[in-house]
Write a structure and sequence with these properties.
By secondary structure, the chain is of the alpha+beta class. The protein is built from nine helices and nine strands.
């Protein structure tokens, strides 16, 4: 009975010792076995591990990709325009033993603090070597790559790998925003004024060309009209000439009627003529020529009789 009483505590102690010597490493973890603070074993594969109870300790680290957001950072590019920059990085532990030696018992918190200092220094160095226009342009991807590559070189001693670095926000300080907006507005107004001036110049050229075209078209139309009018006058004169040659008496009659129409258009037309003036011959007789010829013969006959 006494032996059984002694055996049970021993079995319990052995069970406790056996259980405390076993540890489990999950798939997303890496483990270190420490003996009096010194690394004696590294286990990166998931599964069961063993250690000496009470003498050795197990420290586990998250092997997954970690994120780090840097605090707002003010930088001064080459053109002396201050910018506020926010960045974030993605990193992971690659050498867990070197990581432990670099950060000690501080773990992830110490690693993030040191990585934050590295990123801030690299961001200042890279963005301070270019102008603000380069930072705000499409070349920013190249700048982020330069920051990442510099951070990779400096963080190798920590046993970590920097996977990516991104700039989340790049803004001007509040006190510079209004001045910058004013310069932007002035620049856009200047460009708009230049565009309006170029448009007005182009419109003036178009108007001048149109006016020239109008003058040329009108001049050409007038020239053609004068030619047609001259040809029509020539045709009319030819017709009148043929008519005059065909019947001279009718032509003289027609011309007299036109003269009467033009001379007697007004209501109070007054004309002072001698009684024997030829203007009203066709109003006195139907055939003025025959009357004049008869008068001439009568005058000639009277003269012979007197002789």
């Amino acid at each position: 009975m006494r032996k059984r009483t002694l055996i049970l505590p021993v079995i319990a102690l052995l069970a406790i010792a056996g259980l405390s010597s076993i540890f489990v490493v999950r798939e997303a973890e890496k483990a270190l076995v420490l003996q009096f603070g010194r690394v004696v074993k590294v286990q990166e594969e998931p599964g069961l591990g063993f250690k000496i109870p009470l003498i050795q300790d197990v420290v586990k680290y998250d092997a997954r990709i970690q994120s780090l957001d840097t605090a707002e950072l003010e930088i001064t590019p080459l053109d002396d325009r201050r910018l506020l920059v926010d960045a974030f990085a993605r990193w992971r532990i690659t050498d867990v033993q070197q990581f432990r030696q670099a950060v000690g018992a501080g773990g992830l918190q110490t690693a993030q603090s040191r990585l934050d200092s590295i990123l801030r220094a690299q961001t200042r160095e890279v963005l301070g070597s270019v102008t603000s226009n380069d930072i705000l342009s499409a070349d920013r991807a190249t700048l982020m790559l330069r920051i990442r590559n510099g951070a990779i070189r400096q963080s190798e001693s920590l046993g970590i790998e920097v996977i990516d670095v991104r700039l989340k926000r790049t803004d001007l300080p509040r006190e510079n925003l209004e001045a910058t907006f004013g310069r932007m507005r002035a620049e856009r107004q200047r460009e708009a004024t230049d565009e309006r001036a170029r448009g007005a110049e182009a419109a003036q050229r178009v108007r001048a060309q149109a006016d020239r075209t109008v003058v040329e078209l009108v001049s050409d139309a007038r020239r053609k009209a004068e030619i047609i009018r001259g040809e029509a006058d020539a045709t009319r004169n030819a017709i009148f000439a043929r008519a005059y040659g065909a019947d001279q008496e009718f032509f003289r009659f027609y011309r007299s009627l036109n003269a009467y129409r033009r001379a007697l258009q007004g209501r109070n037309t007054s004309m002072v003529l001698s009684p024997d003036n030829e203007f009203f011959d066709y109003l006195k007789t139907e055939n003025p020529d025959a009357a004049r010829a008869a008068a001439a013969r009568d005058g000639a006959g009277s003269g012979g009789a007197l002789e």
